[in-house]
Amino acid sequence: MAQLPIEDALLAALRDLPPEKKQEVLDFAVRLAVTATRPRKSMYGIWAGQFPSISDEDIAEARKEMWGGFPRERFFE
What we know:
- The chain has helices at about 5-15, 20-35, 55-65.
- It has a domain at about 5-35.
- The chain has three helices and no strands.
- The radius of gyration is 30 Å and the shape is elongated.
- It is mostly helical.
- Helices cover about 55% and strands about 0% of the residues.
């Protein structure tokens, strides 16, 4: 059996749908056409400059505060 071109296959499938489903297909096709022609923005660096910078010293201090009272001697006896 010869394969139909994609447009012919779509039209054949579309003819069998009820009117409300045909409208859904049309709406979807319009959305596809809009998103296919719109250039995408790069996500690289999207959060750059949005948060305060955290230094290695800040991280070390937070670890010292968090783990300072941890009873190490119980685990290393």
